[in-house]
Fold these 2 entries.
Entry 1:
Amino acid sequence: ERNAPEPPTGLYRRIMAQGGELILRAQPTTLIPGTVPFGDAARPSAALMFVPIHSRGHVVGVLSVQSYTPQAYQEPDVKILQALADQSGGTFDRIWADAALRQSEARLFQSQKLETVGKLAGGIAHEFNSILTTIIGQCEFLLGDLPAGTPLARHASEISCAAAQAATLTRQLLAYGRKQLLQPETLDLNQILAGLAGMFRSLLDDTVETRILPGAALHTVKADASQLE
């Protein structure tokens, strides 16, 4: 687990707000509060340069160079260090731009995959819908020829009901694949939800209890059933 970085304080905050700074000390005896010591943590530095690092119009850090030798740096050295920090900021810009490009490409690839799955689902649903149409039609012929209430008539009716449920799933696949024309009709929302109860339970595992609480005295709506589902 990565800890959040400490917010800049003291000297570093001043550098980020005001720009580069050169610190020269003849006889350093103490560490400068708030700075990260160079080399031996117990040995104070004599000469220190600090410059801000800019990236995308913001200060993102501080670059420091330290020496144990007094008068090791001069003001022109601060400008050189600032130029190096600017180069570092440009590198950060390119790194972040590359990362953003990779994220954009990943989102595009995911979108293309979903589009492909939608087209595949729509194509399969069209073929399956043709088969279901034949099954439902043949069941209607059987029910017309068989006496009502007989075992064969009940079996044919169950086949027809199962095919009708499969046709509902086919409509949903067609809607997902965006290959279905909208067919607005007057619908009861409670009936729509009740018809989806089985799908809810199949999508959720046994640790989730599904309960549908129908609304009382709901108005009907005019919408495409598959889109609503």
Note: The longest helix spans residues 75-145.
Entry 2:
Amino acid sequence: MKKIYLLLVFESLFGLLHSQTLLDSLIAYYPFSGNSNDVSGNNNNATSYGAMLTNDRFGNANSAYFFNGTSNYMTVSAGPKFKPTTFPISICCWIKTNGTSVEEIFENDHTALLYNGVWLQLTSGHVAISYGTGTGNTGSQYRRTKTGNINVADNQWH
């Protein structure tokens, strides 16, 4: 059985990095300290579907989420805050997995093929992040995806 652990998702910095502090343009921050609430002050709380709290990479209890690799995921309501008008964007997380199949981990695009938000997934052992343009149109030309070049399916924290 494939196991996926996610420690945190941190989405920020819709703008130039050199002119901003860590909190400028922060959209959401999920430290997973006993729940999936956003502590950025923006009230972008996540809803967990089957994912269970577990130990993080330092052994702290209830500070990471375990996904079963088949049907567990988290969602956040789609809204204008998750639709940046400028790039670059930055999304950071800690992940530990032993699986390589395509699995959705986090998303805020609730309507299939409308590409209306942000989502994080595991694709062939690599972390992939996708962003929909928010136009509500279907088709891959309305979505941008970046897949990491490091295989994370080694049961280690990355």
Note: The chain is about 0% helix and 35% strand.
